[in-house]
Specification:
The complex is a heterodimer of chains A (about 110) and B (about 120). With about 110 residues, chain A is mostly beta strands. Chain A is built from no helices and eleven strands. In chain A, the strands form two sheets. In chain A, strands 2, 4, 5, 6, 9, 10 and 11 form a seven-stranded mixed sheet that branches. In chain A, a hairpin with a 3-residue loop joins β5 and β6. The mean pLDDT of chain A is about 95. Chain B is globular, with a radius of gyration of 14 Å. Chain B is mostly beta strands and about 120 residues long. Chain B contains no helices and eleven strands. At the A-B interface, β4, β5 and β10 of A face β5, β9 and β10 of B.
Chain lengths: ~110, ~120
Amino acid sequence: EIVMTQSPATLSVSPGERATLSCRASQSVSSNLVWYQQKPGQAPRLLIYDASTRATGIPARFSGSGSGTEFTLTISSLQSEDFAVYYCQQYTTWPYTFGQGTKLEIK
Amino acid sequence: EVQLVESGGGLVKPGGSLRLSCAASGFTVSNAWMQWARQAPGKGLEWVGRIKSKTDGGTTDYTAPVKGRFTISRDDSKNTLYLQMNSLQSEDTAVYYCNTFLHETKNAYWGQGTLVTVSS
């Protein structure tokens, strides 16, 4: 199965600053990658699909890039509601696999 | 409005069985690829299995930890997805979510989750 590795495990950023989260696949997943945001006690929320397309209703400050094995989620100017755990997930091959998550915390 | 509502979770003894339901509204379950995922307490997300749409054959796939023990099915008349879980183990303790991605709305939809606790 394809292993997804996210870095860093925890990222401390101040509100208003930019956050950059990384995700690496153990083999190419083309652009078949999504990013989810999850807050405590809530279901995951889809942010990005096809590596770079924002899901419906997602603010423009969220952007995704990359293809193959290296991917990035960028949040351009952090708002208070953006502090959460972020997961990448590939869907090029079953079993789909998630990364272990990056916790974005307030600095 | 698209909505998924899971039910059926609870406390079960090791070796026991449980059936989870996921009632869908706002779209037709048989026309969508539906998945189950789970999240153990304090841990990350893990896929359990999927069922393809009727037009794509309606076949199912599972991940290794649950293969042979869990079965995904759907009842088209009730627009509901199911997850039958047998031979439950403590490692199956988790919140279970049903979910789908709808191309029509370009969005993914997840239920609120239902907690399954396997303990003696």
